[in-house]
Amino acid sequence: MTSTRPDPFIVRTATFEGPLDQLLRLAQDGQVDLAALPLGDIAAEYLARTRQDLDPDDVTETIWLLAALIELKARALLPQPPPAEEAAEDAGQLEELLEERLAAYRAFRDVATALRTLEAYQQRVFLRLPEQPDEPLLSGIALTDLWRAFQEVLARGKERGAEIPPEGITVAERMAAILALLAAHPQGVPFDALFPAEATRLEIVVTFLALLELVRLLRVRVVQEARFATIRIYARTPQEDRTGAEAG
Amino acid sequence: MTDPRIREAANAIECVLLVSGEPVRLDQLADAVQAPADVVAAAVALLRQEYAGRGLEVQEVAGGYQLGTRPAYADAVRRYLGAAGREPLSQAALETLAIVAYRQPITRPEIEALRGVRSEHILERLEERRLIKAVGRKPTVGRPILYGTTEAFLRYFGLRDLSDLPPLDALGGPPPAVAPAETGEAGSEER
Amino acid sequence: MTDPRIREAANAIECVLLVSGEPVRLDQLADAVQAPADVVAAAVALLRQEYAGRGLEVQEVAGGYQLGTRPAYADAVRRYLGAAGREPLSQAALETLAIVAYRQPITRPEIEALRGVRSEHILERLEERRLIKAVGRKPTVGRPILYGTTEAFLRYFGLRDLSDLPPLDALGGPPPAVAPAETGEAGSEER
Fold first, then answer.
1. Chains in contact with C, where contact requires at least 3 CB pairs less than 8 Å apart
2. What strand order describes the sheet that includes C145-149?
3. Cα C120 versus chain centre, distance
4. Residue A246 predicted with pLDDT over 70
5. Which of B104, C52, C79, C188 has the fewest Cβ atoms within 10 Å of its own Cβ atom?
6. Range in A102-111, B48-57, C57-66, C94-103 the model is least confident about
């Protein structure tokens, strides 16, 4: 981790360690004791971090995530509204709202049925595969043009003071690369495939850290069928960690 | 007798449609066959007429024309290709897609409010199938992504354009008797 | 009057030949349309007759039949297929392609941070031109799509792999002495 590029912000509390979005997801699923969650500490820690490097995208996302957590916690801490005479009125309004929503939803279900018919028709229509499917649609551009274009972007970025991602290898980059590799190989890849022969020692170390991080985040699974057998890495399917979170 | 210019244009168009494998717009056809727009339009009409009662048909889809097989012969094609056919969309995916199609541009929270369940995974799948795409961000807190349908969506359902969508009956009454594009109702759905 | 069995077989055969794109033997046709050999033969003969004077033709090659374009219309086909490739890359598209090439895998927000402008539309165009493709998703909030260059990109520039890209000189020195895949002139026209 020789670069200045921000790694994902990792929350560390007594009961949870991981990225903020995962914390929010768990909280939304009711799996976090919100009353005991030190949101103030988390925010302070993130603030301290932004003094070192400030990524606007990251800040936006993090503020949104923190706001969502604050809202959840506020709801959890506030006393439940006592059932008063207002409640009856509210209930009536709520019912109305629900009914409205249900009617809208029913309409979409009806058109979904109509779309299903169109889908069935179109699935019986076949076209010839397009000619030359693997030729790039490009002409008149040379490698030097590409090279020069990139230099210009870098130069302009420097003028603007934009943060230019360093070329160094980061855990986040290697995590993304491993996931991309696994996405392309649903049958998994051998452990060795993560470490090409030309990889530098730094790359190997960082890639290994990235793999550990992915294992911890339950994004990949590492399997060795027998002792001394090839270790294989698989992507975990989204269902494995989202069970029940979504009606699919 | 058919005008020989139209005959020639129709023949050339037939060739372009065969190799294209996707919808070709009228202007692209005009460029390829180097004929004026009215000749091209007449040539397309001639082709559609000639393919009546045949195995192939010229379909008008996603703002262009494509040469495809008639659904009646899908079984023969599948036997030849040995393919089981494409997987149809799940019911949940189809409903979500319908919401995006009629309410676009729309954010995930808005979709979830309508469906009553989390839809992140489904939206991802629909995006991977190129049926929807991010079209911008809503200028509210969190700047949530706005989704809309793609050209591939039109092709998938064989629609000329979005006004070709089946009418949406959001009020729970009987469907409108008039074509939606004319009642203006479809427009108000799409905001 | 054409025997309706032959008409149906001819229609189904027409469909099989459309999707195949390569010669299909008589026995394969018979299997696909599930008709006896004599009906299939008569159907093929009917098709050949119907395509006389048209743009397409049923060609007998390599022991089978294929639906192809008549040589007379090759120019229209070439113009159509070539049109997309001849469209020059805009400077913005070239820059975006360069960023993807050198910094892959990279997300759209990262590209936009570098360029300082929205780049969604450009990425779509580059994808359509088969120069870049989605290679995965970044494991951050929103799981943005990661882009990388395609095999076709490498072939076009004559690169064995990405390490063959001309090395970057962050100090802005002169371009390295690489042999361009084509003359570098066309690219500079676009400024």
1. A, B
2. C106-107, C145-149, C132-137
3. 21
4. no
5. C52
6. A102-111
Distance between CA atoms of residues A164 and C114, nearest Å: 6
For residue B64, the SS3 value is strand
How many residues are given for chain C? 191
In DSSP terms, B58 is beta-bridged to: B67
ipTM score assigned to the predicted complex: 0.66
The amino acid at B40 = V
Distance CA C133, CA C149 (A): 6
Cβ contacts of C112 on chain A, cutoff 8 Å: none
Buried b / exposed e across B12-39, counting CB within 10 Å, b at 16+? bbbbbbbbbbbbbeeebbbbbbebeeeb
Q: Does B102 contact A111 at a Cβ distance shorter than 8 Å?
A: yes
| Nearest-angstrom CA–CA distance, A138 and C158 | 13
CA distances from A109 to B74, B170, C1, C61, C126 (A): 27, 10, 48, 50, 36
Q: Which of A34, C56, C152 is nearest to B11 (CA)?
A: C56
Contact C116 A157 (CB under 8 A): yes
Alpha carbon distance C144, C111 (integer Å): 12
Mean pLDDT, residues A160-166 taken together: 53
pTM of the model: 0.54
CB A104 within 8 A of CB B113: no
Chain B residue set in contact with C, beta carbons under 8 Å: 10-16, 18-20, 24, 28, 31-34, 50, 54-56, 67-70, 72-73, 76-77, 79-81, 124, 128, 133-134, 145
| Touching chains, B (3+ CB pairs < 8 A) | A, C
Q: Which residues of B49-75 are buried (b: 16+ CB within 10 A; e: fewer)?
A: ebbeeebbbbbbbbebbbbbbbbebbe
The shortest CB-CB distance from B55 to any of C12, C68, C70 is to C12
CB pairs under 8 A between A and B: 123
